[in-house]
Amino acid sequence: MESILALDIEELAAAIRDRRFSAQSVLHAYRARAEAVHQACNAVAFWLPTAEQEARKADEHLQRTGAVLGPLHGIPFTVKDHVAVAGTPITLGMRTLQRHGLTTKNDDNLVVVLRALGAIPFAKSTMVQLGMSIGGGSPAHGDTLNPWDTRRTSGGSSCGEGALVGAGASPFGIGSDVGGSVRIPAAYCGIASLKPTVGRISEAWVAAI
Hints:
Amidase signature (AS) enzymes; fatty acid amide hydrolase activity; alpha/beta; single chain; Endocannabinoid_amidase
């Protein structure tokens, strides 16, 4: 597992493509790491039960055809709570939505693109309620802590992504940012983040509810 977690995304994609690691073994390694980080930091809102099947299909496709599904074939990733993943819960950090069991009908456009490139979402991460704070906590999921020092916050509003990616529990993660919501957790957790130019990526990330 440690050898898998030590690889960057390009190295990991090459290792899967060359069949040094299967997509399933990569998923299992990151899932195990994410479970440990979640126990320490409370970073996961929901596990995505379809990930195992998607990884198995990716392995079967590569074995059958000798070709990858795309440049991110078999790479697992995590998604902020309010980014839509078809058939999965969404709370926006709100206890009310959590209680009502709201689920999304379709994938967010970015998730659609990443799936088409071969990537596999395996967890939805915690977020600050409605994305309205730089601290890492919500009524729905409680406080999310910093993996480098659990006496401190991981930052917000993409608190779960900061903790998971910062602790090496996800190769990459998807958040959202208006006033610092990926940049602040990245700074708190010692990782890089990217806020694309406004309009460069579809802003309909919760339109699939």
